[in-house]
Hints:
The complex is a heterodimer. Chain A is α+β, with helices and mostly antiparallel strands. Chain A has one domain: Cytochrome-c3 Hydrogenase, chain B (Orthogonal Bundle). In chain A, 50% of the residues lie in helices and 12% in strands. In chain A, helix 5 runs antiparallel to helix 6 (148-168). Chain A is globular. By secondary structure, chain B is mainly α. The mean pLDDT of chain B is 83. The longest helix of chain B has 35 residues, at 8-42. Chain B is globular, with a radius of gyration of 20 Å. The A-B interface holds A 30, 32-34, 38-40, 54, 141-148, 151-152, 155, 211-212, 215, 217-218, 220-221, 369-374, 378 and B 39, 42-45, 140-141, 144, 220-221, 223-224, 227-232, 305-314.
Amino acid sequence: MAVTDQQRLSYIASQAADARLAVELQTEEMTLNLGPQHPATHGTLRIVAKLDGEQVVKADVICGYMHRGYEKLTEVRTYPQINTLINRIDWLSSFANEVPFILAAEDLMEIEAPPRAQWIRTLLFELSRIANITLFIGEMGVQLGAITPVFFAFRDREYVLNLIEEATGGRFHPNFDRIGGLKDDLPKGWIAETKQAMDRIRGYCDELENLLMGNEIFEARTRGVGVIPADVGLSYGLSGANIRASGVDWDLRRDAPSPLAWKELDWKVWTHPDGDSFARYWVRLQETREATKMVDQLLDGLPSGPIQAKVPRIIKVPAGEAWAHTENPLGEMGYYVVSQGGLGPFRVKIRSASFHNISIVPWLLKGVYVPDIITILSSLYFILGDIDR
Amino acid sequence: MFAVEIPYWQLTILKTVIVLSIIPAAAVVLGYVFLLKMMAHMQSRMGPMEPGGFHGWFQLIGDGIKFIQKEDIIPGEADRRVFAMAPLVVLISTFLLYVVVPAGPRLVVQNLDVGIFYALAVSSLGVIGVLMAGWASANKFALLGSLRAAGQLIAYELPLVLAVVGVVIQANTMSLQGIVHAQADGAIFGLSWFGNPFILTQLVGFGIFLAAAQAELTQTPFDMPVAESELVAGYMTEYSGFRFLFFFMAEFGTAFALSAIAATLYFGGWYQPFFKTGIMADVMGPVVLGAKIMLIAFLIFWIRFTFPRFREDQLQAFAWKFLIPLSLINIMATAVFKVVL
């Protein structure tokens, strides 16, 4: 692509402006390396920041330290084996990872799971959303220096994890979703327990709203920090609560066609006009509340019937291509499955939310102070497994 | 009266040994009671339960023994001598603080006429050690942390001093022993039984003192210098083993000392209304002072475990735009009442 004179001139002008600034202030840039081993990156994300005093001039995000090659591994595995594998992508809400992949496979096989299975899928999906975001709500506090909220988060998340374990057998990696339905039905007494746990989670949300979100220091640290305008966010491919916090009313649970039960529930998509770190926190807190309400409705309206459609014993997926995506806790997660008619797919493209969500970080970090790097990173809320697949 | 004549040098050595043993004891008590147990219970945890048998009381002592056994690591790029000296400088500043705090009518290492002035002066010595540590570590996180600490100390030394001025005006003396006596002999609204603890008249000053002391201790919400989520451990990043232990002891020792000064300034120090003079006052003094210290330390640590931290610019703005004007108003109000009443 040829560079026009206009672009060249504007580049020279910007360089000249930078040079003038550097001469006036007589400061030397310092390169600060955050990570891959650093407490704020909760995983192995690396950020190389050029600092002018405490201000970031330029920040580069380097990811891939935990790349596990899932897209390649899927090519040599059968569909049920892949289901186990993709549990590990976003490890805080594993069940939600399984659903879009299974939906894509069902789409290729032209199988539809029975309604009860779809409702239980939705139920577990929302439970894993709660398990994931409760941790964020507390963890944001620890990134900003308040150490107590994260312990409340771990305490109350445990109730949800116990529920998931009771229903699926796996606390973290359920591997419960099957092509054409689910592995098992819900255990006895589970519904009453879940209702109690939802009350607890709502209490937790109120507690954190008072303890952390209502704190003046928290507001001072997050309001106006890391503002993402809606158009910029969309151009970087942001999704989930990050884009809803910029005022974009977009939720795949409502907007995308899906066999899951979201359409039959009464719920609301929360948005916030500000687009700053506070807005992202606020939207996630409201979403957790909304998810508890959805779980209550799902429990009340759970249809009876089988939980598994008729599926051949050996799963062979006919040749074709399918794309399925859902609104995962971190944002849009999708699988593009290409099958050539074997036991396993020919190629799977995984669209994970965090990878796209952190792509905006270099743009966002320009000109912020060092403490705001942490605020912005934690408010974007990524899971390293979701970035590095 | 046990008017035993002890020769000067023996007495000095005795006093030094006592103060030197108070610092680790204070660090262990505060660390165990607040950092391990109170924080744990606030966060719906149990904290250590096994070491020592009873509620894990041995945990910190065991940690200390572990730290002493560890290898002494000095980074290759570090300025070795400055790096090694820095924790000692910080600890000395803590040590000097204890010299003027009275624990009874006669239980004071040195009753200086400018006691409170001296205490506030030596409390800021510690930042030299922090700057040394940050610079000598040859680590960018440490350097950023120590520079933040220096900036913070300059900003918060001022409200600390100005808050104390109110007490000094009311007590007519800068000697800490004199301030205790002023509270013991004072009266408020004609009630003189429990004296006049200055917390009743200097509530605003106490609040400012507490906030500024929190900043001096670099504790949340003013813990930007050691902000663990961004600067790893600030100026302490490269320290391990017994050098880290020194920093730890200095931190909690200073917290104890500043609580003691706050207790002396605002709660009447060692004074209790039952035994005003004599041997019983000396016996009860340390106990009463200790209880008051724990009360204030509870406030300090309660805030520490609850609040998020300020950003550096907000922290400076809070000191210069809010605390200092407020403390100036406090001084004016105190002076006006002093003249009028």
